[in-house]
């Protein structure tokens, strides 16, 4: 008789701290003990404090929507310069919303940053029901997103966003996204959600975390998550609500943002607006 496969909880205990010891410098961010309806993890870079402040002053200041709690944190790696690193430390102490890795933040370490954010989520914020991973140049209409989440028929096995089909590995050795054939020999990536913004339920984050140990870090972050999800038996699902759009009028931030500007009945394009923060 074949031995029983370990359950997810046992696998999590086996993997606990394995990646944490390698990738965490410290975590200034804190997660309340009560359930978080929506955890938003913004992938940022150390030198972009202006963008982080723009998010904090606009959509990132939402702590609740439709009666449900929301928490926004920023994931960064170590700064290359000592002065910027000191600024990050001070910023983290002031706002307590920064997760910092022990690796130097660079184009080559973005997958480590993604892995770090998943690690932090399942370790320090296991009460989060949904997790939105997004880029620092994406504007999130939090009330609209909350309304969309409340409309979902299921609360588990959720991995959705703008799905990329037949993504091709970058084989150019001069590219920051270069993927050696020996690391990933397949012609295409499995379906994965575009890295600008994608949503996971807590159970999927845990399954991705467990699968991550067997997947090479030489892959682009979004494809890395997709491969981990596939190994865990999770299928990426496309939703029109994550079709990012470009916006040319940035007055909404310059004039001031109010969460009531975005209603739960908003059109799909109002949930995620790409590149609105590039002017800050």
Provide tags for this entry.
single chain, 280 residues, alpha/beta, Spore Coat Polysaccharide Biosynthesis Protein SpsA, Chain A, 9-stranded mixed β-sheet, 3-stranded mixed β-sheet, 9 helices, 24% strand, globular, disordered N terminus, disordered C terminus, golgi apparatus, glycoprotein, glycosyltransferase
Write the layout of secondary structure elements.
Layout (H helix, E strand, L loop, with lengths): L7 H8 L4 H4 E4 L8 E8 L5 H9 L6 E2 L2 E11 L3 H14 L2 E7 L5 H15 L3 E8 L2 E3 L1 H9 L8 E6 L27 E10 H10 L9 H11 L5 E2 L6 E2 L4 H4 L17 E3 L6
Parallel strand pairs: 2-4, 2-6, 4-5, 8-10, 11-12
Antiparallel strand pairs: 1-5, 3-4, 6-9, 7-12, 8-9
Describe the structure.
The chain is of the alpha/beta class and 280 residues long. It has a single domain (8-164, 193-279), classed as Spore Coat Polysaccharide Biosynthesis Protein SpsA, Chain A. It is 30% helix and 24% strand. It contains nine helices and twelve strands. Strands 1, 2, 3, 4, 5, 6, 8, 9 and 10 form a nine-stranded mixed sheet that branches. A three-stranded mixed sheet has the order 7-12-11, with no helix packed on it. Strand 4 (68-78), helix 4 (82-95) and strand 5 form a beta-alpha-beta unit. The longest helix has 15 residues, at 110-124. The radius of gyration is 18 Å and the shape is globular. Residues 1-5, 11-18, 244-270 and 274-280 have low confidence and may be disordered. Keywords: Glycoprotein, Glycosyltransferase, Golgi apparatus, Lipid metabolism, Membrane, Signal-anchor, Transferase, Transmembrane, Transmembrane helix. Its EC number is 2.4.1.-. It is a single-pass type II membrane protein. It comes from Serinus canaria (Island canary). Belongs to the glycosyltransferase 31 family.
């Amino acid at each position: 008789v074949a031995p029983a496969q370990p359950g997810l909880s046992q696998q999590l205990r086996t993997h606990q701290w394995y990646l944490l010891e390698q990738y965490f410098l410290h975590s200034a961010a804190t997660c309340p003990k009560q359930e978080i309806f929506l955890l938003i993890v913004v992938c940022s870079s150390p030198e972009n404090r202006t963008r982080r402040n723009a998010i904090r002053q606009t959509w990132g200041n939402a702590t609740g929507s439709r009666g449900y709690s929301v928490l926004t944190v920023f994931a960064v790696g170590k700064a290359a310069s000592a002065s910027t690193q000191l600024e990050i430390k001070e910023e983290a102490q002031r706002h307590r919303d920064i997760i910092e890795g022990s690796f130097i933040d660079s184009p080559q370490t973005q997958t480590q940053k993604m892995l770090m954010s998943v690690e932090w989520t399942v370790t320090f914020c296991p009460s989060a029901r949904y997790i939105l991973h997004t880029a620092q140049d994406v504007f999130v209409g939090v009330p609209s997103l909350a309304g969309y989440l409340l409309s979902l028929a299921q609360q588990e096995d959720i991995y959705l966003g703008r799905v990329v089909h037949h993504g091709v590995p970058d084989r150019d050795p001069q590219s920051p996204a270069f993927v050696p054939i020996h690391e990933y020999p397949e012609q295409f990536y499995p379906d994965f959600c575009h890295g600008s913004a994608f949503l996971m339920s807590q159970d999927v984050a845990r399954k991705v975390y467990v699968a991550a140990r067997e997947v090479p870090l030489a892959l682009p972050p979004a494809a890395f998550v997709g491969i981990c999800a596939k190994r865990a038996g999770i299928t990426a699902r496309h939703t029109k609500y994550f079709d990012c759009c470009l916006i040319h009028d940035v007055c909404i931030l310059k004039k001031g943002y109010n969460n009531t500007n975005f209603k739960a009945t908003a059109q799909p394009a109002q949930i995620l607006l790409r590149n609105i923060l590039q002017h800050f």
